[in-house]
Amino acid sequence: MTRDKRPVRKPPANAPNVLSAALYELHAAAGKDQEYLEHWPGDSDLLGVLRFAQAHAGTLKDDAFRTAAVLRMQLAEWLRLAADPFQLAAIDDARSGGLKWEGIALELGYISRSGNPNPGSAKNLRDRLYVAVNGEPGDRRQPQVAHLIDRRAAEQRRAEARFINAGEARYAEMDAVARALLERYKAGEVLVDPDDDGYWWEELSDAVEDRRGAAERARLAVYVRAVLRATHSYARHTSQPPASTQQARRVMEAAATLVQSVDTEA
Predict the structure, then answer these.
(1) Which residues contact 13 (CB under 8 A, 6 or more apart)?
(2) How far lies 60's CA from each of 32, 242, 266, in Å?
(3) 214 near 164, Cβ under 8 Å?
(4) Mean pLDDT for the stretch of residues 89-107
(5) What is the pLDDT of residues 210-243, one digit of tens each?
(6) How far is residue 59's CA from residue 109's CA, in Å, rounded to a whole number?
């Protein structure tokens, strides 16, 4: 594992509303008819629930006290995760609005020992938030990883551009082979799993009729690949030929060759 990676730290298993409801049940069981329960803020108000549960933590005893503390920890984790995108957007908006890093540092309280704002700390906070919001689960929440995320995103954009260019160059051929596949499928010449709902064939049928831009035209290859994969998978599973006529076999072979060419060129 590289220094930029860490074991994946997953969010709490239970959703926030489940945690909130569990906290309420603990207090309801311990408090019975006490008036403080009337001030329960509602399961959807996470911050309010945390304030309520912390303020009245002393009403719980033993196992209930410990269980409530764990629930509060998990609920606070959800709240922190939920806040990250908002703080990142606010910092970026402040920057685009003309506020310098020194000003952001001053507003966030990043002050050096000499009493001056520390712009580097404010920038590091922004980069850590950027990693938390836009990174992969295993990315370390460290400022330098933000550059890796940008490079990954750039590579993904380049790969997408190559995919679109390759698909656009072969679109006329792909459209023709897709329509030929659909003809053989509708004629009953392509092996079909009786338990399959025909999802990919429906997607392919829709795709050949609605290709409005280069990206959509390029993705026609995705649906052709999917119907071929589904057909050949069922054929292998049942030891049957994927097509019942020579014409259908030729169309499927041509489709497979064309999809492979697009993948290679992309």
Answers:
(1) none
(2) 11, 66, 62
(3) yes
(4) 94
(5) 777 788 888 888 899 999 999 999 999 999 999 9
(6) 36
Our CA dihedral for 150, 154, 155, 158, rounded to 10 degrees, sits at: 170
Q: For the chain, state the CA radius of gyration.
A: 28
Phi/psi at 190 (5° precision): -110, 135
Do residues 138 and 149 touch, judged by C-beta distance below 8 A? Answer: no
CB 182 within 8 A of CB 209: no
Nearest alpha carbon to residue 129 among 118, 145, 108, 117: 145
Question: Which class for 46: exposed (0-12), middle (13-18), buried (19 or more C-beta within 10 A)?
Answer: buried
- How is residue 217 written in tokens? 């035209």
Q: What is the dihedral of CA 139, 142, 148, 152, to 10 degrees?
A: 40
